[in-house]
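Structure tokens please, single chain.
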Amino acid sequence: MKLLFVIAIVCSCITEVRSSVCYKCSGTTCSGIITLCLPSSTCQTTSITRSTGAINTTLIEQGCPGATQEVSFTSRLVFGSKNVKSCNGATCNTATVADPSNRTQNGLECYGCFNSTSNSCATSEEKVKCVGQEDRCFNGSGTQSLASFGSSFFAKGCVTQNVCNGSANLNDFLVNLDAQTKCCQGNLCNVESAPPVNVRCWECSGKTCNQSQTLCPPLSTCQTTSITRSTGGINTTLITQGCPEATQEVSFTSCFTFGSKNVKSCNGANCNTATVADPSNRTQNGLECYGCFNSTSDSCATSQIKVKCVGQEDRCFYGSGTQSLASFGSSFFAKGCVTQNVCNGSVNLNDFLVSLDSQTSCCQGNLCNSGSAGLQVCNQCSGTTCNPTTVLCPSSSRKCETVSISQFVGTGTKTLFQQKCAGTDEAVSFTSRTVSGSRDSIFCNSRQCNTQTPADAANRTFNGLQCSGCFDSTLQSCINAQQNVNCVGHEIRCFTGSGTQNLMPQSPPSVTIKGCITKNVCDGKANLNDLNINFNGTINCCAGSGCNSVKV
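Here you go.
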């Protein structure tokens, strides 16, 4: 009897725990299926309305309760609302279509607009009546797919407070507000402009465009740059898209070779939709220039023809530099038509695989680029042997130069030479104990006249002056080793100097030197850098035999 009593008590304490049963569906209408929710939970029905223009879309979602809030916004010609209903009891959420949105005006007014740009939003804004729980005005921007224009948008209107404090969003209405959105309380308080946002543009680079999106600075345009390179009838076109860059349109035309770059800008999200480059502007403008494009100045001159300038090409030019556009070597000479911005140095021809050097000359008028435009052409090389190339000299250099550099260390001699456009360096020479060197030049005036390849023998003729000479790492060790040396050529000064050297690589770089030297080094008009000696400004000179000697 006692056992039966205990069993009865235990059974009375057991309570059956059952899951809640609700309908579940999602779409424009509901054909619900049954789902199990947590025990003792409610069933939920969420109704969503999206509207743009006169087109309304309603959606219904049913199921177990979720952490969602009611939210609403109204802008000009666009609105969205979401309301949530909960009920108790098995399969109590029996609705098959969404509830109508609450469009009851609540007395608040805000400025409203919904457009692709800030300016178009400002010019189209109207006063809108706020409805339901919309108790804030807002200015905002972001991305959307609710309206039929591009993804970026600017908007003003009414909104519920939970959107302003960040606890809810407008994603269910295909609207994503960014962090710059501002809210305010009071009639028509959102009179200010929406904050600027980044602009979306298509981005790509190549012969054709496989576009991806990129974000550009606020209020910027989108840009498409089309580049055409042509040599011998073979055209290559390239397209670049993206954010605006500080680039200019440029064009040149030479013999059988041309290049053009044009730039287009547009306003609006992803407005730069081209997938191939625009054709180059080859409309003749009435100007004629001599044109050639060859590896040497002579071959350019003998092959030149008259070429018709096109587009914005308003200058004739004569130039040289390096290139990889044509099939010959990298060095080139050219004549032709070019846009003024190349002549004034604000742009270059690098996009066409052509790099003009600083000696390029431009002129205005038909066929004004005859000859070499008054510029000198010289041979150019450097080393112990010479395989010269031709170079167009700057307008400041009217002569060609052959430079002979001789370095004497012990009984060894090293001779170098250079061919180039004439510079301003002066001949220089020094003699020390066991070490000496000289730099001499020969100048000529005619085209490519500097053809001498062996370096001139250094002038080592004794001139009657004697100086104390040494070459060592410290002043004291130099003084200890000093001996009289015979000065040669134009060495009319004795000197003591210190600095660095690479004339004797096996010796320490720091050096003290005494000996004979040309006066222009003492005056600061020349140096011994070509002889691998740098005094760093520390040199004392004197006139007269033995004037730089120091007693040990």
